[in-house]
Amino acid sequence: MNAAVNAMPQNITPKRGWRHLSAEQVEAFGAELDALRKEVMADLGERDARYIRRILKTQRYSEVAGRALLFAGFLPPAWIAGTALLSLSKILENMEIGHNVMHGQWDWLKDPALNSMTYDWDNTCPGDQWKHSHNYMHHTFTNIVGKDRDVGYGIMRLSDDQPWKPQYLFQPAYNWILAAFFQWGVALHDVEFERIGRGKSFAEARKQLSGIWKKARKQVFKDYLLFPALAGPGFVFTLAGNVTANLIRNLWAYAVIFCGHFTEGVEMFSEEEVEGETRSEWYLRQLLGSSNLEGGRAFHILTGHLSHQIEHHLFPDMPAHRYAEIGPRVQEICKRYGLQYNTGSLPRQFGTVLKRIHRLALPGRRRAAATA
Amino acid sequence: MRGTGWKLLDNPITRAMASPLSVDDYLTQFNPLWSVAEVRGRIERVERETADAVTLHITPNGHWQGHRAGQHLVLGVEIEGVRHSRCFSISSAPADAGITVSVKRNGQGLVSNYLVDQARAGEILHLSQARGEFLLPEGNGPLLMISGGSGITPLMAMLRQCVREGQQRDVVFLHYSNSYIDTLFRAELRALAERFEWLTLIQVVNEGAPLAGDRRGLFSAEQLVELVPDYAARTPLLCGPPALMERVNAAFERAGLATPAQEQFQVKVSSAAGEGVVLFSKSGREAAGDSAGSLLELAEQQGLNPESGCRMGICHACKCHVSEGRVRDLRNGEVRDVKDEDIQLCVHAAAGAVQVEL
Questions:
Q1: Alpha helix (H) ranges present in B211-266?
Q2: Residues B320 and B236 reside in one and the same domain
Q3: Which chain A residues are Cβ-neighbours of B25 within 8 angstroms?
Q4: What number of other Cβ atoms are within 10 A of residue A18's Cβ?
Q5: Count of domains forming chain A
Q6: CB A121 to CB B20 under 8 A?
């Protein structure tokens, strides 16, 4: 592990993407977003409730059907269909349900099954640790090099402003290991290994690790022992199906999440830059530090609407299916203020992420991307 | 399936299969009444009682443990997708099949108004077990039931129990309402009074001409003496709006009698707004105490969604940890300092700086 996140960035041009705006314009921009948020939140109702309940139903039915089909996993078509349904269910549960419920997007329904305080997702990361590392750290300090641990997750160099270290030479390779085991990376994220012994005590880290193990062993037991055992002679087929479903979910979540903040043109910030930041400036940082993915309705749902990463970062507790509706309006506001609205197809955006991972594996920095 | 049957579905294996979700998270998707532990019910029929009151006939699932006449339950219903819970008295007798809840429209009352205007057969309700200590007294002593408006419901359950069980108990049923046409269970009450010697029905109405034996006006001690001369010899039971209950209690106290066993179905809370500054410590939000009545309303104004139920200090669903602060109990106006205490947000207001863990 390394200390990249604690290192001071050496040279960051302040407020790049909104240099052209006056303080008044910045506040006016923030006011427009506030008004948009207010409008949507006041409009929440039955339509939204119906939407999330339909998603819940789809997820539960596909999980039950997937696991049932895997019991007949010795038949290739049943194995493929079962694995596909289980993958679908895990993707829906992690992205559109778990992530969004734990953001508090559905608390207003007052449904205990969709409450951010009690919901825990089918992921090796315990819900309470996720809410700290993600809802609080990442969403508050988005793209602040040295504070937002999602910038490189403590193991990768994803910003020019992170000082280079020899281990980064291998990041093009271990990037794929992270992708394959993404939920485990997420699980260990909040332990902050690089801070142990420095800002963080061993006791605290041990407590977190025991929480992770308590959570993760349930998934390990369920997916790799219990369901395979229930399949009896089909043990291996069910095990293989479950491993594959977790792998597919990992790769998918990894790709979507890496496209949220590490695409070309996404801006990084320094701690000094954001000192005394107003709410409107926070909005600007969220906008310029995030990037969207284009696609159809099903694609957006499967990404948990993180394809609308920009809207999600502007309004993290707004029910996510509304992001697709307000996207064009956010884009229009950005256009009027001459602000970048970073969007593109998944292959294009992911391509730029891979480029960044490879380029930053090598020492040196480039300004071009940052000032674009 | 009985409650015990469902409990068999809740074992270490099924829980491990559902983990980290619960077994209910799956069962509910197949049938909203299915649950390993929760009481839920389906509205079978909505019966219109008066222009502004209905009776919901509810079939609860196997977890329902029955009730005793006079008890209430917390009923949760989805309105525009959002679950709202309120307390309602059960109006059916324990021996009846299913349960009934009778609801009267209530000013701005969101849930009551929804149930009266829009509840439909087939709708699923989230229920609590029956609770409450307002019960039909044991033995065979004479009773005086005093009710006002929709406060009639728990007493109606008791009366129905007397009828179902063939108790030939001497009952005076004294009911206060706006008018005859407004009276819940009016036809049934009259029919019972005609059929049974042991039941005396007296109504006091606010509007229109009273029938023989009935009266017009409000409750008074003199009226009670006149209508029920032997009232002091009867076990009194009381349920009605706060104004009526205050008057009845005062009359009994002045006569040197113990006040009746009673159930409040509306809490008379002081309308005074809070004071000071309320800090919601988990969300980091801060609000002036005077911008709402109760701490619950204040939290909701701030966009927080604490659990809540009856909103009248009965169900304790909204209990929340207060690390420190000065609060006013809205039921009696008492101000006190609390430290590390769980309080019911719905019946407390800020009376100074308060720190709520929300």
A1: 221-227, 242-254
A2: no
A3: 60, 113
A4: 21
A5: 1
A6: yes
A109: nearest CA partner in chain B:
B82
Residues of B in Cβ contact (< 8 Å) with A229: none
- B83 interaction partners in chain A (CB closer than 8 Å): 109-111
Residue B136 lies in a domain: no
Chain B residues close to A110, C-beta within 8 Å: 82-84, 305, 307-308
- In a domain, residue B71? The reply is yes
User: How many interface pairs between A and B have CB atoms less than 8 angstroms apart?
Assistant: 56
pLDDT value of position A194: 82
Q: What is the ipTM of this complex?
A: 0.89
Is the CB of residue A57 less than 8 Å away from at least one CB of chain B? yes
Q: What would the two tokens of residue A245 be?
A: 């479903």
Question: Are both B11 and B42 inside the same structural domain?
Answer: yes
pLDDT, tens digit, for every residue of A297-317? 999 999 999 999 999 999 999
Residue type, position B73, single letter: L
The pTM is what?
A: 0.88
Residue B84, chain A, CB below 8 Å: the answer is yes
CATH number of the domain within which B346 lies: 3.10.20.30
CB contact (8 A) between residue B21 and residue A48:
no
Q: How confident is the model at residue A2 (pLDDT cuts 50, 70, 90)?
A: very low
Q: Look up the domain containing B171 and give its range.
A: 143-264
Q: Are B218 and B106 found together in one domain? A: no
Domain span including residue A163: 4-41+125-371
**Boundary residue ending a domain (B127, B160, B186):** B127
> What is the percent of chain A where pLDDT is above 70?
94
- Flag whether A72 is in a domain: no
CATH at residue B9: 2.40.30.10
Kind and range of the H or E run holding A161: none
Of B215, B235, B264, the last residue of a domain is B264
Q: Which residues pair with B194 in a beta bridge?
A: none
Per the prediction, chain A carries an average pLDDT of 91
Q: What is the pLDDT of residues B69-99, one digit of tens each?
A: 999 999 999 999 999 988 899 999 999 999 9
Based on the fold, state whether residues B191 and B260 are members of the same structural domain.
yes
Residue A346: phi, psi to the nearest 5? -60, -50
Contact A116/B at CB under 8 A: no
**pLDDT at residue A236 tops 50:** yes
In-domain check, residue B269: no
What is the SS3 assignment for B47? strand
With respect to residue B135, please indicate whether it lies within any of the assigned structural domains: no
Alpha-carbon distance B207 to B177, whole Å?
9
Pick among B40, B82, B304 to test the A interface (most A CBs inside 10 A): B82
**Residue B240 sits in a domain of what CATH number?**
3.40.50.80
How far is B136 from B126, CA to CA, in rounded Å?
Answer: 26
Q: Per-residue pLDDT for B124 more than 70?
A: yes
CA dist., res. A264 & res. A369, Å (int): 6
Q: Interhelix angle for A182-189 vs A202-221, to 10°?
A: 150
Contact B81 A45 (CB under 8 A): yes
Model confidence at B3, in pLDDT bands (50, 70, 90)? low
How many folded domains does chain B comprise?
A: 3
Let me know whether B103 and B158 are in one domain. no
Q: Which of B58, B344, B49 is nearest to B188 (CA)?
A: B49
